[in-house]
Design goal:
With 343 residues, this protein is mainly beta. It contains four helices and 14 strands.
C-alpha cells in the first residue's frame, strides 16, 4: 500500500505521542504555519515542523553538537543541546485553479526535510546580555518527491476546499541543504510594576537578532528585533522569524508575553523563487530585500515535575511579509501556531 500524506502524518503523530513513554525526557515542538488562518491562499501557503530536543542524547550526538557549536562561534558552548527536526513547506501561485500556472507568479514548490539542531543559552554573552545561539542543518528534497502537492490537496479535501490544479508544473526534483545560524540577545528595558517573590509580572524587554543561511535552498542574511511586554521574560527568548523555531526547556515559573517585531532580510538565493540550481524550471525574479512583521502572544506554563508532561508552551502570531518577487502585486500574510511540550 503506498504511503499517503494521511499515513505519513499519522505515523509522525504516533511517534510524537509515544516519545514521553519510550524516550528519555526532553522538549517537543509542533509548529503549523498556514495562510488560510489569515484568510489568504497563496505563496508560502503551509509549513509544518516537528522538533525534539532530548534531555539525555547519545554521547556521540552531544559531542558532535558541541563541535558544531564551537566551530560556528557559539558563546561558551559547553552546555549546547542537540535536537532533531522534520518538516515540510509548500508554496503556490495566487491562482491555484489554473492547470498551467501564470509564469509571472511564484511557482509551485515543496520542500520536505529532516535536520539536526543545536541550541545554547548563556546569561552573560555579547555585551553582557543574555544570549541564545541556534544552529540548524537540514537535508531534504525539493520537487514531486517532497509530496507537498499530495499533502495540500489531501488537506483541502478534508476541509471541503477546492484542490490546487497546477502541481504538475512545480519546481523539479533536487536534493537540498540548508544551514541556518541565529544569534539572539535579550536586553531588559523597564519594569513598571517591579518584582515580587513570584517573579516579574509586568516588564518590557527588547530582543535583537541576526540570522545567516547557506545552501542550495536559500542564501541570505537577516537582522531584526522584537519588543515584548510580559511576565518572567528572562525565561524565554521570544519568537523566531522565518520558519525556524526550536523547542524551549521547561521554565521555573510561568512566562507570558505580548510581542511585536520586524526583520529585514537580504536574499542572495531562494530556490522557491529562483528555481532549480542546475536545470531549467519555473522561476520569477526575486526582490533582493524582504521585510517581515510579526505580532503575537506567547505563554509557557510549568507543571509538576513528577508528571509525565512537565510544561506546556503556546505561541500564536500573525505574520506579514513584503513582496518577495518583482511581479508580486501585494504583501503576503499568514498565521503561525506553535505548541511546545516538556516531558
Amino acid at each position: 500500500m503506498p504511503l499517503t500524506p494521511r499515513h505519513a502524518w499519522f505515523l509522525a503523530a504516533a511517534l510524537t505521542l509515544s516519545l514521553p513513554m519510550e524516550a528519555p525526557g526532553g522538549d517537543f515542538l509542533f509548529q503549523w504555519d498556514n495562510d488560510k488562518i489569515a484568510d489568504t491562499d497563496r505563496h508560502y501557503t503551509n509549513g509544518m515542523r516537528l522538533s525534539y530536543v532530548p534531555d539525555e542524547p547519545w554521547r556521540e550526538i552531544t559531542d558532535a553538537s558541541r563541535w558544531l557549536a564551537h566551530n560556528t562561534w557559539f558563546w561558551n558552548p559547553q552546555g549546547a543541546r542537540p535536537g532533531f527536526v522534520m518538516g515540510q513547506d509548500m508554496y503556490t501561485p495566487e491562482d491555484v485553479d489554473a492547470k498551467i500556472p501564470d509564469p509571472r507568479d511564484r511557482p509551485y514548490a515543496g520542500w520536505s526535510y529532516i535536520g539536526l539542531t543545536v541550541q545554547n543559552e548563556v546569561d552573560q554573552g555579547l555585551w553582557g546580555l543574555d544570549q541564545f545561539d541556534t544552529l540548524e542543518i537540514d537535508i531534504g528534497i525539493v520537487g514531486p518527491e517532497a509530496r507537498a502537492g499530495e499533502t495540500q490537496n489531501w488537506f483541502h479535501r478534508q476541509i471541503n476546499v477546492a484542490e490546487s490544479q497546477g502541481w504538475d508544473s512545480q519546481i523539479g526534483t533536487e536534493p537540498g541543504l540548508l544551514i541556518s545560524r541565529t544569534v539572539k540577545l535579550r536586553a531588559p528595558l523597564w519594569e513598571p510594576f517591579g518584582r515580587d517573590e513570584d517573579g516579574n509580572w509586568g516588564a518590557f524587554d527588547a530582543i535583537p537578532h541576526a540570522t545567516a543561511q547557506l545552501g542550495n535552498i536559500k542564501i541570505g542574511a537577516a537582522m531584526g528585533g522584537t519588543l515584548r511586554f510580559g511576565g518572567n521574560l528572562k525565561e524565554d527568548f521570544g519568537p523566531i522569524y522565518g520558519t525556524f523555531a526550536l523547542p524551549r526547556h521547561r521554565p521555573q515559573k510561568t512566562t507570558w508575553s505580548l510581542y511585536m517585531g520586524a526583520e529585514v532580510r537580504a536574499v542572495g538565493r531562494d530556490i522557491f523563487l529562483d528555481g532549480n540550481t542546475f536545470k531549467d524550471s519555473p522561476d520569477v525574479k526575486r526582490n533582493p530585500f524582504v521585510l517581515e512583521h510579526r505580532a503575537g502572544i506567547a505563554t509557557h506554563v510549568p507543571l509538576p515535575k513528577d508528571w509525565s508532561v512537565t510544561g506546556v508552551r503556546l505561541d500564536i502570531s500573525h505574520v506579514m511579509r513584503t513582496r518577495e518577487f518583482e511581479t508580486q502585486d501585494k504583501a503576503d500574510r499568514y498565521g503561525s501556531l506553535r505548541i511546545g511540550i516538556n516531558f
